[in-house]
Every structure is written in structure tokens, then in C-alpha cells.
């Protein structure tokens, strides 16, 4: 309503309300490297396209002459009342898009009461992001390290910052084949972006120190020009924090340790089952696309699933997230909440995902494009626009609450 009124008064919104314009405007302000990393998908981009095409295959069938003068977009998720069924997806290395990540994104989310899922590969320690959110809900996303002590340390920190849930991302045991990044010859982590959860972790720092000590024993220290350059750029990037944490040697060792241990490709169901003893927080598995995996996850005791193909960044030619949601909703049959992630670009998309069985959705690239354009307020505006469009779509379809949105509101095109 406020957005419309501003328009009537001739005020232009700070960020474009159309996704295409938003994306184009963001591209103009981002460096080629940031654009490649944020926008890029796996392989030929087929999964990214499939994510969008799936939404186009479903059409909303609005109803009329129902009193829609008062509406409520609120939902309850893991015992929390949320203003809408929308969360901000975890995004690593977001400071490539704009300085101040992840604290600025957290603060924008908190202004709207929208939960932000802190990435394992965030640019600020989760404690700093949480501090920017007051009592607003936050979740934590875990990449399962090869080092179990580090996993436990991350889980303990997530509990300490009062995260409502832990999301374990399973589709990124290895980084996908992403030609846009590969051709530029640069991935963010090489410069130290996206490792702040690690460099602020006592277990991680212990591992780095042990590795440095072991290396010093077995080989004389070799000072290369590259190592010196990387040390200098780290000092600039993390004034105080990084060097305080690491002390003396060696940011480079931290980056190398991170690359070696951040992910465990051998992860199995037994590890997921062990989470029940490791944390009291509800656990969601992110990246589940097959109904058999969804059933298996319920047996393993997880609290929810994030149906996602990582925004088309991992397996090219994979099933769209929305198509997977339809199959998984049938298999799960309401036993645990499903969160749809990948391809959400508008309020109408949120409506369709809810109608097809999602309890909530997460927003990835759109909020990062807002961040690139307008920093903290850009994130807030993009998200607020999407929430406003969702509320309108619901009302104009003849519905007044999220619980009323079901399959009967859609037809297959
Ligand atoms: C991501 N994503 C992601 N997921 C995750 O679990 N941990 C992470 O650190 C990241 N990092 C990340 C960085 C960037 C730049 C992007 C674009 C995405 C995936 C993200 O959580 C989400 O699954 C997708 O972005 C959803 O798809 P859309 O909304 O971008 O289409």
C-alpha cells in the first residue's frame, strides 16, 4: 500500500520493482567477478532456466467477490510467528556485491522481521550478524566440515546466538562446475572473502596453528611474493579482526585450511542421524530433490527440508526446485515443513510455491541484487516489494490467509 501511494505521489522506488530491471541495474554496479559469482549458474545454465520455466507452467486462478479487505500473510514455523512465509537464503561471500555483509543484510531482514539464514561462508562472524538483529529470528546454515570438532563448535555457536534452526546444506559437497567463475580464474575464497565464520572459531584457529607448526617442522618457511601480497590484502580486508584472531602467521594458511576442511564429500545418513545428539535445534536438510531422500530424512529425525537446487549453481540439467517440491510434498504428506528455494523472483512465485505444498520460501539472488544496488536498504526494499506483491496476489486471488492457499488455487498450464 505504502509503495503504491508513493507511486501515486510520483515518487520512484529506490530499487526497481521489476526483477528484470533489478537484475540489469545490479549488473551495472557489480564488478565482473562479483557478477560472475552471484549470477552464474552451473554448466550451460539449464537448471537455472528450468527453475523459472517450472513457475510458468502453473497458473493462478483468482476468485472474486470474497471479502479480502483484511488479510494476514503471517505463518508459524518451528514455534515462531513470522510476518510472512519468506526467509532470506544463506549466501556466502556476499561482500563481493557490496561492503558490510553479512551484518547489513541481517539488519535489513530484522527491520522486516524476516529470518536471515547465516551462511557458513559468511563475511562476518555469526555473532556480529545476530547482534544486528535484536530479537528478530535468525537461522544458521552449516557446511559439514571434515573436522567434527569444528562442526560441533559451529552448532554450539548457533545455539548461543539463539538461532531458531540449523540448515545443513547437502548439495555442495564439492563446488559445482561454474563456467562464469572458472573463466575469470577467480573464486572468492582465494582472497579470503567468506571465511569469517572460520577465522572467528577457536577450533578452526587451533587447526590452523597446528598445521603451521607441522609445516614449519617439516620444511623451512618459504616467503613468496604471492604470500606477501595475500597477507597485505587480508590485513586491509579484515582490519583488526582477521589478524587479531589469527595472530602472527598466516592468513594464507587460514585460507588453505578452509579450502581443505570446509566440506566433507563422504557425508552420509549416519552423520545426519548423529545431529540429534549434537544439537537441540531443529535441523533442516537443504538441497533435497528426490522423494526417497525426503522420506529417508524423516526417518533420520530431521525437522524440515529445504527443497532446492542451490539456485541452479550445482548440477546443470537437474530437476527444477518447484517440480521437485510437487513430488516431495506428496511423499512427505505434511509430516514436516518444506521450504522451497531456487527461482523465487516475485510475490506470485511465493503464492505458487505455497499452493504446491511449501510452508515457506527463501530468496537468494534477488536480495543480493538489492544489496549490490543499495546496501542494507536495498535488501530491505527488494524484500519488502516481494512481500507486498505476495500480499496483493493473495488478496486479488480471493484469499485472506496463507493457510487458505492450496492446490485448488492453481491449474497446470
Ligand atoms: C548461494 N547459496 C548458498 N547456499 C548455502 O547453503 N550456503 C552458501 O554459502 C551459499 N552461498 C551462495 C552464494 C551466492 C552468491 C548465491 C547466489 C547463492 C545458495 C542460496 O542459498 C540459494 O539456494 C539460492 O540462491 C536460491 O536460488 P535463487 O533464489 O538465487 O534462484
UniProtKB/TrEMBL annotation:
Enzyme active site: 310 (proton acceptor)
One Pfam family in the UniProt entry: FMN_dh
Residue positions binding glyoxylate: 37, 143, 178, 310, 313
The entry's keywords: Flavoprotein, FMN, Oxidoreductase
GO MF annotation list: FMN binding; oxidoreductase activity
The keyword Flavoprotein belongs to this UniProt entry's keyword annotation: yes
Binding locations of FMN: 90-92, 119, 141, 169, 286, 308, 341-345, 364-365
Obligatory cofactor(s): FMN
Keyword Chloroplast among UniProt keywords: no
Entry's family note: Belongs to the FMN-dependent alpha-hydroxy acid dehydrogenase family.
Protein name in the entry: Dehydrogenase
Organism, scientific name: Rhodococcus rhodnii LMG 5362
Amino acid at each position: 500500500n505504502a509503495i503504491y501511494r508513493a507511486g501515486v505521489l510520483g515518487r520512484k522506488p529506490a530499487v526497481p520493482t521489476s526483477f528484470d530491471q533489478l537484475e540489469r541495474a545490479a549488473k551495472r554496479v557489480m564488478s565482473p567477478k562479483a557478477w560472475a559469482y552471484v549470477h552464474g549458474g552451473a554448466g550451460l545454465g539449464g537448471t537455472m532456466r528450468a527453475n523459472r520455466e517450472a513457475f510458468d507452467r502453473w497458473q493462478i486462478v483468482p476468485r472474486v467477490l470474497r471479502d479480502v479487505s483484511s488479510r494476514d500473510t503471517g505463518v508459524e514455523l518451528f514455534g515462531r510467528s513470522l510476518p510472512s512465509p519468506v526467509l532470506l537464503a544463506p549466501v556466502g561471500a556476499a561482500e563481493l556485491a557490496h561492503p558490510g555483509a553479512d551484518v547489513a543484510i541481517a539488519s535489513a531482514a530484522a527491520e522486516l522481521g524476516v529470518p536471515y539464514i547465516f551462511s557458513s561462508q559468511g563475511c562476518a562472524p555469526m555473532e556480529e550478524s545476530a547482534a544486528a538483529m535484536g530479537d528478530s529470528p535468525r537461522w544458521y546454515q552449516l557446511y559439514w566440515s571434515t573436522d567434527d570438532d569444528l562442526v560441533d563448535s559451529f552448532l554450539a555457536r548457533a545455539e548461543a546466538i539463539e538461532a531458531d534452526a540449523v540448515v545443513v546444506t547437502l548439495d555442495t559437497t564439492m563446488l559445482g562446475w561454474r563456467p562464469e567463475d572458472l573463466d575469470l580464474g577467480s573464486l572468492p575464497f582465494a582472497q579470503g572473502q567468506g571465511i569469517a565464520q572460520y577465522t572467528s572459531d577457536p577450533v578452526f584457529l587451533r587447526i590452523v596453528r597446528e598445521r603451521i607448526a607441522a609445516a614449519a617442522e617439516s620444511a623451512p618457511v618459504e616467503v613468496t611474493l604471492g604470500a606477501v601480497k595475500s597477507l597485505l590484502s587480508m590485513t586491509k580486508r579484515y582490519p583488526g579482526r582477521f589478524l587479531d584472531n589469527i595472530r602472527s602467521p598466516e592468513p594464507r594458511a587460514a585460507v588453505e585450511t578452509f579450502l581443505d576442511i570446509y566440506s566433507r564429500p563422504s557425508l552420509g545418513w549416519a552423520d545426519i542421524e548423529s545431529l540429534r545428539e549434537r544439537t537441540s535445534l531443529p535441523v533442516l536438510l537443504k538441497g533435497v530433490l528426490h522423494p526417497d531422500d525426503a522420506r529417508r530424512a524423516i526417518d533420520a529425525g530431521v525437522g524440515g527440508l529445504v527443497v532446492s537446487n542451490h539456485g541452479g549453481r550445482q548440477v546443470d540439467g537437474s530437476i527444477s526446485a518447484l517440480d521437485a517440491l510437487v513430488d516431495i510434498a506428496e511423499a512427505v504428506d505434511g509430516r514436516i515443513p518444506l521450504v522451497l528455494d531456487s527461482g523465487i523472483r516475485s510475490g506470485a512465485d511465493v503464492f505458487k510455491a505455497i499452493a504446491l505444498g511449501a510452508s515457506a520460501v527463501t530468496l537468494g539472488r534477488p536480495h543480493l541484487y538489492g544489496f549490490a544496488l543499495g546496501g542494507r536498504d536495498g535488501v530491505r526494499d527488494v524484500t519488502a516489494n516481494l512481500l507486498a506483491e505476495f500480499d496483493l496476489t493473495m488478496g486479488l486471488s480471493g484469499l485472506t490467509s496463507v493457510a487458505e492457499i492450496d492446490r485448488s488455487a492453481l491449474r497446470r498450464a
